[in-house]
Amino acid sequence: MSRDEVVVSGVGAVTPAGVGVAATWEGVCRGVGTATRDPALAGLPVDFSCRVPGDDVGAGLGVRNLWRMERFTRLALVAAVEAVGDAGLDPATWEGARVGVVVGCGMGGMHAVREQERRLTGQGPDWVSPALIPMMLPNMAAGEIALALGARGPSLAAVTACASGASAVATAREWLVDGRCDVVVAGGTESATTPLMVTGFQRAGALSRRGEDPTGASRPFAADSDGFVMAEGAAALVLERVRDLRARGGRARAVLAGCGVSTDAHHPTAPHPEGRGAEAAVRAALTQAGVEARDVEHVNAHATSTRQGDTAEGRMIERVFPHGPSVTSAKGALGHGLGAAGAVEAVLTVLSVERGVVPPTANVGAPAPDLAIDLVVKKPRERPVPVAVSDSFGFGGHNVALVFVTG
């Protein structure tokens, strides 16, 4: 590694598989879906989702004023605290002016909006919480993390729909390369499984209607996939330059060698049918990383379980990586975490690089016959993963690719 390379020194996650990286990794390696009936969605055409277990996530952090934080912010804070601890860093001792925070979020505090609208219409203006605005703003995940950790460097909310978490990681790398920070906590978060948001996606034709089998509803790259399953969650990565990591005696879990971004400029919600924008992002990330496409051993795919999106991405993978690297999608197990997805999948990609294990794609026996990709199914695959790519795409035509290599 060169002295200026950006490395991942810590990871944290809160997902429907459980609280913490260990629970999340175990869940995706088990290869079983986490979708269940959601009481909050009872009576709707789609009444199931993938939720993080427990309503009191974050209660054990010892953070003051946790009451004012909406669920998406609490999830992000739990993931960030885990990542910082995993990196072996102590916020009480660092120089906060050189610590940045960037967190992706697609929607913000939808639960708070729903509850306060209910209070307004049912009880009147005096019952609306004065904390509504800071609870709902998408940037408050980054703001509350910075406040809790004493991070006084740049902070930002990355909002690129379902690519938001990956956009945050790419932005963090830029800050480190440009010398704006010495440490960046980067990630993504989302908790938007409210009746209105779920109905909005359902009306757009994006969600699975497989209500008779919620656990098996999310089927990335499958011939019979019929849409994604809404999920919530959060993940965080601590990024540093390798020279700073070595100076403090830290451990590199993986190198974030390159990032690529592009925009389809094709349609507000549909991907380019040939995945040309996605391909541009992947090729740009490979170029920045200084690796050839044939060097890539693994692709952690965006693959949401929509036929249109999965087909476009699958054909892009075939085109860019004709040698057939292993492919997986965590969304079979975890559902689609929207703004959190790119960060969750970045963490999983880091673990695959570090451990030489690729988790299976849940609920899928084989990819659709028209896709010639080496999809990992049924059980984890153990093999060295020296170079891996994580793809993320979002409404608006946003494309982000991250390249991780062994540290």
UniProtKB/TrEMBL annotation:
Origin: domain of life: Bacteria
GO molecular function (one): acyltransferase activity
InterPro entries: Beta-ketoacyl_synthase (IPR000794), Ketoacyl_synth_AS (IPR018201), Ketoacyl_synth_C (IPR014031), Ketoacyl_synth_N (IPR014030), PKS_Beta-ketoAc_synthase_dom (IPR020841), Thiolase-like (IPR016039)
Lyase listed as a keyword: no
A Pfam family matched in the record: ketoacyl-synt
Entries under CDD domains matching the protein: KAS_I_II (cd00834)
EC number(s) reported in the record: 2.3.1.-
Enzyme class: transferase
Start and end residues of each Ketosynthase family 3 (KS3) domain: 3-406
Alphabetic keyword roster: Acyltransferase, Transferase
Family classification: Belongs to the thiolase-like superfamily. Beta-ketoacyl-ACP synthases family.
UniProt-recorded name of the protein: Beta-ketoacyl-[acyl-carrier-protein] synthase family protein
Annotated source species: Streptomyces millisiae
